[in-house]
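Students often ask what a holo structure prediction actually looks like on paper. The answer is less mysterious than it sounds. You provide the chain, you provide the ligand, and the output is a string of discrete structure tokens encoding the 3D arrangement of the protein together with magnesium ion.
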Amino acid sequence: MDMKETWKAVDAFINEELQVSDEVTESILEKNEEAGLPPIEVAATHGKMLYLLAKMSGASSILEIGTHGGYSTIWLARALPKDGLMATLEVSDQHANIAEENIRSAGFEDQVTVIRGQALDSLPKLMEKGYPRFDFIFIDANKDSYPEYLEEALEVSTTGTVIVADNVVRQGKVIDPETEESNIPHIRKFIEMLSENDEIVTTIIQTVGRKGYDGFLLGRVK
Ligand code: DHB
Ligand code: MG
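The corresponding structure tokens follow.
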């Protein structure tokens, strides 16, 4: 087996042995696929990691930037206490419609709100809308705005806020400033901003699996 096949097989093994996926999460993936959404949801093993991180941090308010079809949304919403709430920002109306259906069928419609529009328009309005500072923020939208998303995420953070961002390694291209992948300069800027910011403690975890080779930024606001 080549390495990529091994990563996938081990991902499937973990999924099977630890019963990571269930009917609800699987049915969301099916619905997203039927609707023709690109299959770029986090892997189930990573969805459960997001759930665990949110649960471990005791988050009662969660913000997601980039809803897609609501797959990671559901994993995160599951970590909320009964009186917890979540906002998830989505630019595509089609994706937001599907996500809302998925959120409803998973039973989280009272706790999770899909906020439509450009995230950079929605983010500065969250506090005036009455949202509290968020305990947990997951960034997984268009990569060319990661630097701005970081700035806005920090604006709605408080001491102890956990910030996680997807896709910060991109098959290792992150270390190649000359790469053709147009997102990389923005991801590099995002990482550089974090390195210069004394208010957040960070690391990056490289990952392999169903989606190939990538990585997550993990941070905690001081
Ligand atoms: C891709 C993967 C992602 O996780 C994402 O958020 C966006 C794009 C991709 O592989 O193209
Ligand atoms: Mg992603």
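The first strand starts at residue 61 and ends at 65.
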